[in-house]
Design brief:
Mean pLDDT: 97
Strand order of the largest sheet: 1-9-8-5-4-2-3
Number of strands: 15
Helix content: 25-40%
Low-confidence stretches: none
Structural class: alpha/beta
Distance between the termini: 25 Å
Bound molecules: ligand T4K
Number of helices: 11
Largest sheet: 7 strands, mixed
Order of helices and strands: HHEHEHEEHEEEEEHEEHEEEHHHEH
Radius of gyration: 21 Å
Strand content: 15-25%
Shape: globular
């Protein structure tokens, strides 16, 4: 049996580099609660991501959940169902109502032409996702938000290091939330961040990630515990030194996929966006069974038989999850539904051997009629 290939593999620095980085932690005995590594990583990421302000958290999910709390939102939030569970859960766990907008068939991001018809007098915010690292139609979304006085919170969990029109992607909207999970282009093992402009939001977020503690004698918000610890921050400091090289290697993998799969009938590859500096986070492929000759599930099974484990990100749509007890009408997001039944995210990580990419593509091609 050929070697196992999973959808991704965590990037790790040389072990000695990490050991060196965590020596200070042994010396200081300072393990968490906004210690020196946390502060150093925060500063470095502010520069790297080209944003006004950033705060670090335990994970991408808590950055979304606490952002919605810090903004003190009430009512309905317009969002996309074509995403990871976290985006929708963050809304619902804040007592807010998600209103699902359909997505664009090429970028898979929220379709801005469908937003206005969903706005009611209860709408308070728009929460789009730069899904797979594809950048949303930022200008169109901002125009609508300005017209109706809505907050824009980007789920930017897939867009570490990307720029749009030369500006850091985290600088758009009111807040952008990042994930530094083990499976992401840049990881701190587990981790996340919020990027923002408004210093007051920053103060509220800083309190909320630490139980709402303002100072030793004042607790002025019902916060959570979402502080990035020093070991995670140390991993981030190491990984940040290598991230450009990681992205360059990912680019080569993506180019090899494109060389193999571009132009095949019934296959839609991820859109290339001219104003975007990509991070090559994911490689989603849409299989149209009528023209390609095999369904997404058939391709998935063929790859699995060859020890290759692609993933059906993002299937099922979040508006069909069992936990929502058929509360949402999936027929209102037909493009997202169509895509979710046809998408397969192929293995992608910096060290994926280009010969393995060829092998993956051979299996895919063998499924075609
Ligand atoms: N918003 C969006 C749009 C997101 O995609 C995510 C997370 C979030 C918000 C929330 O951010 P976080 O709170 O997670 O920071 C994975 C990740 O756990 C999740 O972070 C990610 N999105 C999602 C798209 O993928 P699973 O359930 O598919 O993970 P799992 O454990 O099956 O891992 C996938 C593959 O990754 C494995 O087959 C092998 C590899 N892997 C995994 C782990 C855990 C490694 O190489 N090393 C590892 O440590 O969710």
């Amino acid at each position: 049996m050929s070697k196992q290939i999973l959808v991704t593999r965590s990037s790790m620095p040389p072990m000695e580099e990490y050991i060196d980085e965590i020596k200070d932690i042994w010396d200081s005995h300072w393990l968490t609660n906004m210690g020196p590594k946390h502060k150093e990583l925060q500063k470095k990421l502010e520069e790297y991501l080209d944003v006004d302000h950033i705060d670090l958290l335990t994970n991408g999910h808590m950055s979304l959940e606490l952002t919605l709390q810090a903004l003190n939102l009430q009512g309905e939030v317009i969002t996309t169902p074509f995403t990871f569970a976290s985006t929708t859960h963050a809304i619902v766990r804040n007592g807010l109502t998600p209103v699902f907008c359909d997505v664009d068939p090429k970028t898979y991001c929220m379709d801005p032409t469908k937003i206005e018809e969903l706005i009611t007098d209860r709408t308070c915010a728009i929460l789009p996702v730069h899904v797979y690292g594809n950048v949303c139609d930022i200008e169109a979304i901002q125009k609508i938000a300005d017209k109706y006085g809505l907050k824009v919170i980007y789920d930017a969990c897939h867009t570490f290091g990307e720029t749009y029109k030369g500006r850091g992607i985290g600088s758009y909207g009111d807040v952008s939330c990042f994930s530094f999970h083990a499976t992401k282009v840049f990881n701190t093992i587990e981790g996340g961040a919020v990027c923002y402009h408004d210093e007051r939001f920053g103060r509220d977020m800083y309190g909320l990630k630490n139980f709402g503690i303002r100072d030793q004698e004042t607790v002025d918000a019902v916060g959570a515990n979402a502080k990035m610890n020093e070991f995670c921050a140390a991993m981030g400091l190491c990984n940040l030194r290598h991230v450009d090289e990681e992205i360059a290697k990912r680019k080569k993998v993506v180019e090899r996929y494109r060389a193999n799969l571009d132009g095949i009938d019934g296959i839609q590859l991820n859109a290339i966006q001219p104003d975007v500096k990509s991070n090559y986070a994911y490689f989603p492929v849409i299989f149209e069974p009528e023209t390609f000759g095999a369904t997404r599930n058939e391709v998935f099974d063929a790859l699995s038989k060859n020890n290759i484990y692609a993933r059906k990100y993002f299937y099922p749509l979040t508006n069909t999850f069992e936990c929502f007890h058929r509360q949402f009408d999936v027929t209102k997001t037909p493009v997202a539904l169509h895509l979710s039944k046809r998408v397969l995210t192929l293995p992608l990580y910096a060290d994926l051997d280009l010969n393995d990419v060829d092998r993956i593509c051979e299996v895919i091609k063998s499924c075609a009629k």
